[in-house]
Design brief:
single chain; 178 residues; alpha+beta; 5-stranded antiparallel β-sheet; 3 helices; 31% helix; binds nickel (II) ion
Length: 178
């Protein structure tokens, strides 16, 4: 399995709207396994394909304590939402920031599984929020879009500064080419 690079805000590729998955095949299952590996290593509880620069409608999640219940949703659709309330969330593409947003705490989702079979699942609480958050990624939307312009700009400036610093550190430590 391969650990994939997670794009970070404000990378414009995170704004891409993902296309429906047309075929659930071995290549897609390999991508799913790599996304799960990447999510567990991060560590995170959900990851959308958009975040690893694959623009197909696919997300993975695992909200279990033991991190042994991987879930896969291909071409997910929310067919029912209930019980909207505040819940704190963060994002692997916006590291270090957590904000409270209004989300449905109960959702019914229809999707394809890793064998390409349609299933429906009722997700509650954290899993419900993860699914809504990851589905936003598939539409090119980030949780910072729900915040005020002021707050979003502050987060963007700080992350851009961190990214510039990382690039500078890498160039300092690189061995000169001979
Ligand atoms: Ni995210």
């Amino acid at each position: 399995m391969t650990r994939l690079t997670i794009l970070e805000y404000p990378d414009p590729r995170l704004r891409t709207r993902a296309a429906p998955v047309e075929r659930v095949d071995a290549a897609l299952r390999k991508l799913i396994d790599n996304m799960l590996e990447t999510m567990y290593a991060a560590p995170g509880v959900g990851l959308a394909a958009t975040q690893v620069n694959v623009h197909q409608r696919l997300l993975v999640a695992d909200v279990s304590e033991q991190k042994n219940q991987p879930l896969v949703f291909i071409n997910p659709e929310i067919i029912k939402r209930e019980a909207v309330g505040k819940m704190q969330e963060g994002c692997l593409s916006v590291p270090g920031y957590f904000e409270e947003l209004d989300r449905a705490h109960v959702v019914r989702v229809r999707a394809l599984d890793r064998d390409g079979k349609t299933f429906e699942q009722v997700a509650t609480d954290l899993l419900a929020v993860v699914i809504q958050h990851e589905m936003d990624h598939l539409d090119g939307k980030l949780f910072v879009d729900y915040l005020s312009d002021l707050k979003r700009t502050r987060i963007r400036n700080k992350l851009e500064k961190d990214q510039r610093q990382r690039v500078q550190e890498r160039s300092r430590t690189r061995t000169p080419a001979l």
